[in-house]
Amino acid sequence: MKFIGAGARPGQPQVDHDLIFTVPNILTVLRFMGVPLFVWLVLARKEYGFAVLVLAIMGSTDWIDGYIARRFNQTSRLGRILDPMADRLALISVAVTLVIAGVVEWWYLTALLVPDAVLLSASLFYFGNHPDLPVSRIGKIRTALLLVGTPLLVLSKLPIPLTEVYFVIAWVFLGFGLLGHWVAAFNYFRAIVRKGKMQSADDGGRH
Length: 207
Fold this sequence. Notes:
Elements lengths: L22 H22 L3 H24 L5 H24 L5 H21 L10 H19 L7 H44 L1
Helix pairs in contact: 1-2, 1-3, 2-5, 3-4, 3-5, 4-6, 5-6
């Protein structure tokens, strides 16, 4: 089974419906709710084991909701916006939490925030809101790498065997994930600028 684009039906184009209450959208909302739970477990309770479990569930729902959406024709315009927002909120909130807890350094959070800040500025400049661009393949791979590497990093802080191994593996995933994050951001930036200029040209042609 393929992991990127899993559930897609061959020969059938993906159509984004005007749907709100779908199983994928509900799973995405649950992923939003997992963020404050993770923060509470790490900062208030120091329960890193349960925090890893929450991260694992959040990461799995990211794949599951996409599979269900494509497999059962439940893709929606709302989901196309909510899903990457949930991923970004999770990655940044988790990074902030881990910085405060002393698990990672500030440079890791900075490496996540700078590309997103540039994209947000470009989106507001050209559109005033969300640019409504499809998630790229490298963006999906980037998210998967970060969602796998983060719980492994937290796992390396537990008093269990092979913590050094978990730590190394975690940073392999996170390193490639950060690289993909910057590459994806560069591609999204070009797409935002291109779409923004085309939209401006179309608006100018109507006057």
